[in-house]
Structure formats: structure tokens, C-alpha cells
Design a protein that fits this description.
557 residues, alpha/beta, GMP Synthetase, Chain A, domain 3, Beta-Lactamase, Rossmann fold, 3 domains, 23 helices, 18 strands
Length: 557
């Protein structure tokens, strides 16, 4: 770190970026997320990545460079070998009569400066660049220097005819997906061609069309890597594969199904970084975090996470299990599928072929002396009944339900023939969530809007609550850049609503009250709805109003 934390705090207080309240929040965020001070104040939106870099550079009287805003000649980029550049966090970005201009996360690093000077026999001019900007630049160059799918296929057809190297094409699909931070790869045959699509931040993008007759060979290669039957074309198959890239392994879950035009494959990339993610990283507010902490530190009862597929429920549950995981507790899970391995936790995979279902597995777990049980999903009355009984008999049960909001989970359990008094006695908390895309920090811009404009999509009291009474309101958006694929967004975080089952809500459950009445009471008890939580994040400059409305499905939008 160029400046000690105390020095940086003093500097940021001088320019009115920090006060004691913000400083306290930053330190709490650091503790919860296990990140450094600089990353914490950026994630909390107290200052942008670029503004922080400029502030430090001005204080140290070092020139600052934003690599995202310039074009780097390929020959200059390769002056520092990539492995060394990544390790030292340094990129050569320009060369002129004065010497080599070197962007560095730490311009006091004499080792890399001397190495570049010896290699080029030129003077080296250090510039400060943010670490995030440097790492994004590696990513963009990696992407730009890869051959496109089209070029590879064209060249392969020309040189090899029907013997084109399908293994190279599959490797390129996987490698590009890794660099593009893809969650799912769709490989699907159409009537006249085949198509590869990537899901990035929840949105599917067409990547490449290729000859349809090539699709079968690509699917065969995927089946081989996933240890699936290559002679089976009429039945669905599920498998796993592992791909090595940059000295690490990426696990993929593979699903292949027969469709009208052939076979379609969907590959889910399981990100290793999600193993260490916390609820704070996921965007949960301090108020909601406090409620969740109270609920999962009880030794019995149920913690429920609700939301549609792809809303981040599993990641939230894994974050909770990670906090609960100590040597003094026996944690056992039954999942379909097991997405991430947790050291020290006994994880069971559902297997219908051996009649290992959620219900039968849960019965067996109860004979294994567990303290905490994670049931991947409560799908039926039998599983619900066993889970509720486990929660009543001194176990903490964590599970997921497919409902649209938190309040609907309570009537849903009653629909599964669970008596209201059992629901009231066992459920500690219900967490509902969606995922919104985050504005790209590299191309974030401020736009001015008015109350009238916002009231077209939002109730007047909501606008006033989250954006104040000013006539002109500042909100943010991403203008689009190479880092975010010109979408204006990069990465996602959650918007939450958390219902803590209070005495009043227990009373409503016993009366079989509908979800609207329960929501009304929860709001009186201090619950923020997903829309409220999302608009808080809009006001903080983390996401856009359009994103929040898209995932919360507000009427009229």
C-alpha cells in the first residue's frame, strides 16, 4: 500500500470524502467482507476507483493514468512479460522519446522499474494506476488477442476439411467464457446452423453461429470430457467436467438434452470465488444482516431463502453455512446438485436412481446426530414435514423455497399440509432476493433527472423517500466500455427483503392470514421490500432504476 491506512483516512477527511460515520461503516464492512480499506470505500461508493487513484497520485506527486481510457499498442503491452506483469501489477502503456511509460499499482516498486530499464535500455516513467484498472486491462488484452470463433472455424475448415480440431474449438469456448465471467454456456442447434450463447450477469448473449454439422462433434467432445455416453442421443444426460486455465481448475456442470434439431448442451461454470463470499459482499444491508445473524445463531428453527431460479439463493445459503461451520458443529446437507464443496461439511447428492431423494436423505441425516441441516429445496409435503419436525426437535434447518416474495413462503408451507401452529413455531426468518447488475465502475457517469420523470415508474412517496425533495436528482449509469462489453454493467449483487417472524407475525400465521396482511405487518416491524432495497442501491450509485424495476417486476413496467 502506497499510503498507510491512517494517512489515507486523514487525506480523505481533508477533501470531505470521509467523516467519522462513514469511517465506522467502512471498518465494519472490511470486517464482514475480509477486504482492505481501499476496496471497502470503493464498494461502499464513498469514492470511485479512479477518483481514489487521482487523490493518492496528487498527494504523492506522481502522474496518474486511467488505462481504460487509452489505447495501448500491442508491442508496448508485451514489453513486460504477462506473468511478471500480473505478479508485479505493472503494464507498459506508451513509449516515446522520453522513455517507457509504466502503469503500476505501486510506483515505488524499484524491481520492475529496473527490469524494464535493463530490457529496453530506456528511461522508465512510473505512473500510478488502480489495481482494478490494471487487472481489467489484462482481461481486455487477453480477449482482443484471442482468435475469434469464426476465424478458427474458417481456418480449420480450409486446412483440415472434415478433420478440423474440435478440441481446440471447445477449449476456446471454455477459455473465452472464463475471461468473460460467464455463468452458463448454451450450445444449441437451430434449423440451418448451430449457436453458442453466453449468460453474462444474468443476460444471454449470442456469441457465434457455426455450421450445424459441427454441433454433433462439439457435443461428442463435451460428452467425452464429462464422462457421458457418446452413443446416447435420445435421453437427457447430466455430468461434470474440469477445465484447467491459468494454473487453476474451473469446475463445470453439464446438462445435455435431445431437442427437435439435435442435442443441446448447457454448461454451468462454478466460480471458485463464490466459496468465500459473504452476505455483505452480496449486498445485504446492515439492518437485514442483523436480523439474519440473529436467526441463524439460534440452535433450532428454520431459515428459509426464497426466489426464482438464478436469484442467488444458493450463494446466500453457502455464505450462511460458511459462518456456521465450526469444528464444534456437525453440518450435513442434502443437495441437487452440490454446487460448491465446503471443507468440513458433510454434503449428500440427491440420486433418484438409488432412491436417495430429499425426503429419504433427510430421514437418514436425522440419524447422523446433526446440529445444522441444509435441505437444497423443499419441493413436496413429505420433505416439508420432515424438515419442520427436525426444526422442532432441536436442529437448525436451512432451506430454499420457490416463491416470489418472502411473505408467500408462509402460506406455501401451509399448502404443503404443514399445520399453521408448526409453521409459526419453527420458521425464524425468510429471506427473499433477486440479483441486479452493478454499474461498471470504469464507465460510470452521472445523469440528472427530475421527480416528475421518476414518478412515471415509481410512486411519489417512494421517490421522496429514496431521493429526497430536490427538484434535480443525480443518478448513475454506465456509458459502456470494453471492460463491460459495452453494456454499462459488470457483476451483480442482491436486493433483499427479510421477514423476521415476530410475535405479531406468528399470530397472523395461526389465523392463516394471506401474504398481503403478513407483508403489511412485516413493514410495520421494519422490513424493507426488495424495491426499497433496490432503490437504496440506486441512490448509492450501485445500480440503475431500470435494473431494479426489471427484477422486482413492478406493475406498469
Amino acid at each position: 500500500m502506497l499510503l498507510k491506512e491512517e494517512q489515507l483516512i486523514e487525506l480523505l477527511k481533508k477533501i470531505n470524502v470521509l467523516d467519522d460515520k462513514k469511517l465506522k461503516k467502512a471498518h465494519e464492512f472490511m470486517k464482514d467482507s475480509s477486504i482492505g480499506f481501499q476496496e471497502a470505500i470503493i464498494q461502499l461508493n464513498f469514492i470511485s476507483d479512479e477518483q481514489l487513484g487521482i487523490t493518492i497520485a496528487n498527494h504523492l506527486k506522481i502522474p496518474f493514468i486511467s488505462l481504460a481510457k487509452i489505447s495501448i499498442p500491442e508491442a508496448v503491452f508485451h514489453i513486460v512479460p504477462e506473468k511478471i506483469a500480473r505478479k508485479q501489477k505493472a503494464i507498459a502503456f506508451a513509449r516515446d522519446a522520453n522513455g517507457i511509460k509504466l502503469a503500476m499499482a505501486d510506483p515505488s516498486n524499484k524491481e520492475i522499474i529496473e527490469m524494464v530499464a535493463r530490457k529496453t535500455q530506456s528511461k522508465v516513467l512510473p505512473h500510478l494506476a488502480s489495481e482494478r484498472d490494471i487487472m481489467n486491462t489484462f482481461y481486455i488484452f487477453k480477449k482482443d488477442l484471442q482468435k475469434s470463433f469464426s476465424n478458427l472455424i474458417e481456418k480449420s475448415v480450409k486446412n483440415h476439411g472434415h478433420d478440423m480440431p474440435v478440441s481446440k474449438i471447445v477449449d476456446l469456448i471454455l477459455e473465452t467464457a472464463f475471461y468473460d465471467k460467464v455463468s452458463d454456456i448454451h450450445i444449441e442447434p437451430q434449423e440451418e446452423y448451430a449457436l453458442a450463447r453466453y449468460r453474462i450477469d444474468g443476460i444471454l448473449h449470442d456469441v457465434i453461429k457455426y455450421p450445424r454439422d459441427l454441433n454433433e462433434r462439439i457435443l461428442t467432445r463435451i460428452k467425452v470430457l464429462s464422462r457421458l455416453r457418446t452413443d446416447e442421443h435420445m435421453s437427457p444426460q447430466d455430468g461434470k467436467m474440469r477445465f484447467e486455465i491459468e494454473d487453476s481448475f474451473i469446475d463445470l456442470r453439464v446438462s445435455i438434452i435431445p431437442i427437435a434439431n439435435g442435442e443441446k448442451a448447457v454448461l454451468r461454470l462454478l466460480s471458485a470465488h463464490n466459496k468465500n463470499i459473504t452476505l455483505t459482499d452480496l449486498g445485504m444491508s446492515d439492518n437485514d444482516l442483523e436480523k439474519v445473524n440473529r436467526a441463524y445463531t439460534k440452535s433450532y428453527g428454520m431459515v428459509l431463502s426464497t426466489g426464482p431460479t438464478g436469484s442467488g439463493k444458493s450463494t446466500s445459503i453457502y455464505a450462511i453455512l460458511k459462518n456456521l461451520n465450526t469444528r464444534a458443529k456437525n453440518i450435513t446437507t442434502i443437495e441437487d446438485p452440490i454446487e460448491y464443496r465446503i471443507q468440513g461439511v458433510n454434503q449428500i447428492q440427491v440420486n433418484p436412481k438409488t432412491k436417495l431423494t430429499f425426503a429419504s436423505g433427510l430421514r437418514s441425516i436425522l440419524r447422523q446426530d446433526p446440529n445444522i441441516i441444509f435441505v437444497g429445496e423443499i419441493r413436496d409435503s413429505e420433505t416439508a414435514g420432515i424438515a419442520v419436525n427436525a426444526a422442532l426437535t432441536g436442529h437448525l434447518v436451512v432451506s430454499t423455497l420457490h416463491t416470489n416474495d418472502a411473505a408467500t413462503a408462509l402460506p406455501r408451507l401451509m399448502d404443503m399440509k404443514i399445520e399453521p401452529f408448526l409453521v409459526a413455531s419453527t420458521v425464524n426468518i425468510i429471506i427473499a432476493q433477486r440479483l441486479v447488475r452493478k454499474i461498471c465502475e470504469m464507465c460510470k457517469t452521472t445523469i440528472n433527472t427530475t421527480h416528475e420523470e421518476l414518478r412515471k415508474n415509481l410512486p411519489s412517496e417512494m421517490v421522496k423517500k429514496h431521493f429526497g425533495a430536490k427538484s434535480i436528482i443525480n443518478i448513475y449509469k454506465g456509458s459502456g466500455c470494453p471492460v463491460c462489453h459495452s453494456t454499462g454493467f459488470i457483476g451483480r449483487l442482491g436486493v433483499f427483503e427479510v421477514i423476521e417472524v415476530t410475535k405479531e407475525i406468528r399470530s397472523l400465521i395461526l389465523k392463516k392470514a394471506d401474504s398481503d396482511v403478513i407483508i403489511e405487518q412485516a413493514e410495520k416491524d421494519g422490513m424493507s421490500t426488495m424495491l426499497d432495497d433496490g432503490l437504496d442501491k440506486v441512490a448509492q450509485g450501485i445500480t440503475t432504476i431500470e435494473e431494479v424495476l426489471r427484477v422486482t417486476k413492478v406493475e406498469g413496467i
